[in-house]
């Protein structure tokens, strides 16, 4: 983090709210360096929330907190005061990392005065913040239940000019947004996210890091849908036991045809 920006934060009034307001203001700046500083401070906050503290004034500072641990079955995050305070802040709109970062991404993608490399670097920083915020605050995933934010991710996924590492970041962000969030998953499906992934070159051959990541995503999606299907079947059987002459309707809705639709993409 830039030393001048770190000094600005240090001189700010006590309280994380003031410092976040300064960071969000930097993220909306036309200067790319200011945008970077704002995003880096959000990363710093996320690192502190899980107890990984670094010196924010160091020039080579970079958050190295164990994000992947959140994807390990059975992993539980310590419910410390920092996490509780963070989640309380995220429950509101003003200090919500996800909404502010999505707005930052929209501005970056709309600009034509910056080169692709610099833009992609900042977008990767945005996605890092998004993944951390959504994994720490589940309700923030619903931001991507709206069409426009989800369209941003799918748009970046479709762009064949991006590097494999960039597209992996996009896929990981989609996973963070849809994991345990049925509303976001439905939006992803409705915006043809599954079809977009299936149509990417080499996916079915499983070649390359992007293809492997996509196949893993499909496995997660199919597993979630199968679990929901089994739950519905169990509920239907229970209903029939109580109402033996009734007609079960739980498996007749369009939602339960999604599993077959996804499987068709993989055939």
UniProtKB/TrEMBL annotation:
<protein>
    <submittedName>
        <fullName>Uncharacterized protein</fullName>
    </submittedName>
</protein>
<dbReference type="Pfam" id="PF08045">
    <property type="entry name" value="CDC14"/>
</dbReference>
<dbReference type="InterPro" id="IPR012535">
    <property type="entry name" value="Cell_div_Cdc14"/>
</dbReference>
């Amino acid at each position: 983090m830039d030393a001048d920006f770190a000094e600005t934060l240090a001189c700010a009034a006590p309280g994380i709210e003031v410092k976040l307001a300064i960071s969000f203001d930097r993220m909306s700046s036309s200067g790319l360096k200011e945008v970077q500083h704002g995003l880096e401070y959000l990363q710093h906050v996320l690192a502190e929330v899980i107890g990984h503290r670094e010196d924010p004034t160091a020039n080579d500072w970079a958050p190295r907190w164990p994000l992947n641990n959140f994807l390990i079955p059975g992993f539980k995050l310590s419910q410390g005061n920092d996490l509780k305070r963070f989640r309380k802040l995220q429950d509101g709109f003003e200090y919500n990392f996800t909404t502010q970062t999505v707005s930052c991404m929209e501005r970056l993608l709309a600009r034509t005065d910056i080169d692709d490399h610099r833009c992609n670097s900042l977008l990767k920083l945005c996605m890092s913040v998004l993944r951390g915020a959504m994994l720490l605050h589940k309700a923030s995933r619903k931001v991507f239940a709206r069409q426009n934010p989800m369209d941003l991710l799918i748009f970046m996924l479709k762009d064949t000019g991006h590097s494999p590492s960039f597209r992996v970041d996009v896929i990981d962000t989609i996973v963070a947004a849809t994991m345990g969030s049925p509303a976001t998953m439905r939006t992803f499906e409705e915006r043809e996210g599954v079809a977009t992934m299936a149509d990417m070159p080499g996916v079915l051959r499983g070649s390359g890091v992007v293809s492997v990541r996509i196949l893993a995503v499909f496995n997660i999606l199919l597993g979630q849908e199968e679990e929901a299907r089994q739950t519905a079947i169990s509920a239907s059987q229970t209903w029939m036991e109580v109402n033996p002459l009734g007609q079960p309707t739980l498996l007749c809705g369009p939602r339960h045809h999604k599993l077959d639709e996804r499987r068709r993409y993989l055939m």
